[in-house]
Amino acid sequence: MDEPTHALLTRIADALDRLAPPAPPPLELTGADAFVWHPQSRHLAPVRKVARVDIALLQGVERQKSILVENTLRFARGLPANNAMLWGARGMGKSSLVKATHAIANQRDPSCLVLIEIHREEIRTLPELLNVLREQSRRCLILCDDLSFEREDADYKALKSVLDGGIEGRPDNVLFYATSNRRHLMPRDMIENERSTAINPSEATEEKVSLSDRFGLWIGFHNCDQETYFAMVDGYAASMGLPIEPDALRAQAVEWSVTRGARSGRVAWQFIQDLSGRLGVKAA
């Protein structure tokens, strides 16, 4: 090869090296106890402080707390555990319970469990995330918040094979939790449309409903009554040390819930945020 040609090829190779994206950094799960999955760069971004509430502040869900905590602690100890779907009423603490349970596991055995959040829009990359985690030594709890599927959405098929199927199977060091307002993750009209156009309607329905069946635990959350709502408000107010009489607190809490048209843990927390601001009390 003559000298000019060699020099030209060298410049081309150098230019391609500059244009190529940098190699992703090696995966490390030692820097934090929580991460967010970014599939475009195959990167787990560490979360230094997880936005969570203490599990004692979650009122009206005692049975749900007991079930999920027990399942999570078994997994953290290396024992068999089930994937879980937390479904039901909005604002009743589904995702808060998952994050609080993760905190309990790490309080009992520091750094025993990693929490990894995957966004609903990226659920199709879940198999890739599992392959990334398969060789890791730490036990990982994957959370997908507000999981549901709409018409023309085929991502649920990838999730089905990950939860219970495929020749590789779910890694022993990974557990999957999802929260949803829907018990079966899909709108009723989507299921009914599949049923009406299928040769065998029952098989089409089974295809949709069977996704929820892949979760070993179904944990339901329901709308709370007024006493439970008051317990939530009282607990939040006590934790923040708000200087207000109980009767006045509850009267304002009722007014707030009426203006929102609902009673839930989220409504209670929003009321306490507003009240603490009016009273000039900063969050601890």
Essential attributes:
284 residues; alpha/beta; Rossmann fold; seven-stranded mixed beta sheet; 7 strands; elongated
SSE order and pairing:
Elements: H1 3-19, E1 34-38, E2 43-46, H2 62-76, E3 84-88, H3 94-108, E4 113-117, H4 126-133, E5 139-144, H5 155-163, E6 174-180, H6 188-197, H7 201-213, E7 217-221, H8 226-240, H9 246-260, H10 265-279
Parallel strand pairs: 1-4, 3-6, 3-7, 4-5, 5-6
Antiparallel strand pairs: 1-2
Protein architecture, described:
The protein has a 7-stranded mixed β-sheet with strand order 2-1-4-5-6-3-7, sandwiched between helices. The protein has 284 residues and is α/β, with parallel strands linked by helices. The protein is built from 10 helices and 7 strands. The protein is elongated, with a radius of gyration of 24 Å. The longest helix is centred in the N-terminal third of the chain and has 17 residues.
Q: What assembly state would you assign to the polypeptide chains in this entry?
A: single chain
Contiguous uncertain segments of 5+ residues: none
- Which CATH C-level class of the largest domain is it? Alpha Beta
Query: Helix count, per DSSP?
Result: 10
Q: Could you state the order of secondary-structure elements as H and E?
A: HEEHEHEHEHEHHEHHH
Q: What structural class results from the helix and strand content?
A: alpha/beta
Count of discrete domains: 2
Proper CATH architecture of the largest domain: 3-Layer(aba) Sandwich
By DSSP, the count of extended strands is 7
First-to-last CA distance: 72 Å
